[in-house]
Each structure stands twice: as C-alpha cells, then as structure tokens.
From TrEMBL:
Enzyme class: oxidoreductase
Gene Ontology molecular function: L-malate dehydrogenase (NAD+) activity
EC number: 1.1.1.37
Name by which UniProt lists this protein: Malate dehydrogenase, mitochondrial
Originating species: Taenia asiatica (Asian tapeworm)
Keywords recorded for this protein, A-Z: NAD, Oxidoreductase, Tricarboxylic acid cycle
Amino acid sequence: MNCLRRVAVVSQRSAKLFSTSAQNPQKIAILGACGGIGQPLALLMKQSLFVSDIALYDVANTAGVAADLSHIETRAKVTGHTGPDNLKMALEGTKLVLIPAGVPRKPGVFRPSRLLSFHARVLVFWCFHCSLDAMDGGLLVV
C-alpha cells in the first residue's frame, strides 16, 4: 500500500509538468554557443520549461548545434545565427543573454594579463552590441 501511495504522489507531481495553461514565453540568446561551455549550456537551456526560444550565435557555424538541439522534443525553438549581420536578429526580443565566449588557456601562456586582455575585448564587443539592440532583459557572463 505504501508503494502505491508513492507512485500516486510522483504521478501527481509529474502531472504539473504537463500544464495546458499558457506560460509567458521567454527568449534567450547564447553568444559563443559552439564552444566547450556553450554547447552544454544550450542543451541545459533547451530542457528548461521557462524557455520558449533559443538563439545560438557564434563566429563558427551554429547550424550543426542548432540542428542537434532541435531534435530534442521540448517546446523551445532553436535558431542558429552566424556572422555580424545576424547578431541583431539573434538578440532581438531576448530576455536573457548568456555569454560563455572566450578562449581557453594555452600552454606557454603564464601571464593572466594577456588572457584577461583578450577576454575583456570580447566582453566589451558583446556588451556594446547588446546595448545597441535595446535588450529588455539581463546579461550573464559565464
């Protein structure tokens, strides 16, 4: 009897995930989505119940990552954007911008100032474009 009670509680909790009521759609953008951090981050965002649209942007080809994520059956729609002309389209209407872009430490680079100067330039570039496109939401740098 106790086992059946546990099954009933679990099924009641699971039923809440299948709500038919309208939810507030949220669009997010991931800048640097093809990197080692951006791909798993995009996968986690695809599985979130709070995300309705995901815009992937990177200097590399994002079509492959977007195609892989679109095979996962969730309500989030994934689009891939590449190139400076498509950056505005990727940021349009976003509530949250996630920036995992950067370069890993290479062998022989011992001075953190060299690595930090590159990351600072990348961050200034992204923040400048986010401010130009009148983004409504927040900015998260990973």
